[in-house]
Design goal:
This protein is α+β, with helices and mostly antiparallel strands. It has ten helices and 29 strands. A hairpin with a 6-residue loop joins β27 and β28.
Amino acid sequence: MACTTIPKGMAAVDTVDVEGTDRVSSSDVEERLATAPTKKFLGLFRGIVYDYSLFDRSVLQRDLERVERFYRARGYYEAKARAGRVLFKDDDHVEVTIVVEEGEPVLVHEATVVGLAGLSEDDTEAARDAVDALVERGEPFEEEPFNDAQRAVKRALTDRGYAFAKVQQHADVDLPRHRATVVYAVTPGPKATFGATRVEGLKELTADGVLRAMNIDPGDAYSTSTIDRGRDAILALGTFTSVEIEPQLADPPPANAVVPLVVRVREQKLRSVILGGGFQFDSIRARIHLQAGWEDRNLFGGYRHFQVDLKPGINLYPTRVPTFETPTAVLPEERFRASLRQPGFLEARMTGVITQELNTFPLLLGEKVAADAPVVGYVEYKGSVGTERSFARYFFVSPTYNFQYDFPFTYVGALDPNLTPLIVSYIGARGQFDYRDDRLKPHKGVYVQNDFQFAGLGGSARDFRIQPEVRGYIPLGSKVTLATRATVGFLFPLNYGETAQEHARRREADVNAAALTRDLSLIYLRGFFSGGPSSNRGYPLRGVGPHGTVPFLNPGISMEQLALQCQLDSDSYDEAICEVPLGGMSLWEASLELRFPIYEPLGASIFCDASDVSVEQLVLRFNYPHLSCGAGLRYDTPIGPVRVDVGYRIPGAQVPSGVDPRLEGDPDTIFGAPIAIAFGLGEAF
């Protein structure tokens, strides 16, 4: 850790305050200043890690000019900035105050578009709407929307076929009357069509796949939006690091108004070997795994994307946080996945997808472990076939058929005879609306998705399942983001679930063990759980929602014995047996998070999560908030931020008073505090 010193004869800037900013945000002004306060390490110490910010009067003078120029760009032509106070605390520390006199803004008096004669009513309206959306009458005359509107008018025309359109802008500013008259003069030119397309930059790949994905034929009506969709479709092939489509606009326009296109691409590495490993150490398990994979982005030609991945690993059982027990068994596992994506399937913009998985893993559900309980495992096969299609850049739809087979066995102990193989056969449809500025690290925008499934095409389960979700990102300044998320989920079983509901409600002995085992097994596959790094971060994985006994995890104990032992006032009550996550049929989750940088690439967040899972259908228990708040750190990487979050369960904001928290799991404390520590790759949402 480096320490820095202040050069002799110089002074470090401790604070910079901007006063008089009644109509413009002071933070927007401060971002444009070269005179800045010295950063503090951990928000406390100056001169550690970060260099001192040194005071320079000439730089401050230029800052005052920058402030006045910034205000002028915002419509405040008479704004004045001055150094209100430069206070030397010591010989080598100074505090700076800048005072702004904003004055009256110049307001937009009128904004018109001329040169639209001969255009259709729809085209004329589109051009005028482009101006009205950005340059509002009665608002301050700002340079940025003034320039943006010029580009928006041109875009409105080029979207409608006027490839050669030109737009000139002019503003008449009347300072004494504090008003501006804005004029956009349009020369639309002829309506155009697309010509031939040439592809440049290909090495191993062929042009056929690019042209098919772009889906623009000679003679099609010209449109900038069509070009954008073509570029997005080419990028979606996953074989190029960059794609540019440049229309060849002749000046003057040719008599036939045909516009050829040049597509410039840069191929990325088409084949790669993936080697790595990782570990998981939390309140549920201690796991170590390796990873080996192969990826080919042009399998047998045709831009087919093939990927195969194997993750063998071991679980050290029952080692976990915070008890750190010595492992008594090593539970091997493996996860194998292969996928093939075929672009241009059925039509130019549709992708066919086949995915196959073969997994072997232990079923580790709760934080606590019964001494003599068996460890159940599954050999699982998952297969799906389907398609993916994007529409207008922001919309995505993927219908699939899915088949799943789970065969139970035990790593340790005897297998409950009621635990039998399960088959789930279902169709699914997933839709997304993604209007975020960045998918890995969103700063503004909206994301909406919905996942619908119907199981019943043979197999063990018949049900409907639906889960919509909404996320929003609000910029608070250029680098601070307020992120929100909300989701609900509903499961409607048609041939299972009643026994599990009765068991969760009453915890009585007169429940059929075989029926309960079947119900719980299917709910583990089809139901909802909450808690964990991408859910409620004050709880472990599956930590939120109803808890109770699971007979197939205790095959040596009768239902009568389980019922007696798990009475809340029983002397033989055992958390490991009586507080196992059961899952549910109704879910709600909500999160609010403030994300901000510390020192790139390190950032931090403050968050609150709330959620609940109910065993009942269509029942959202908002009086069971399971509220947790906390903070976290993020380290940016090319594949997304690596993060650690610590969530604190707020006392009195978990379940209604009078409800025993053990019915909802009541997670263990860590170091005596009601917290959970969550690690993850990528933002929580």
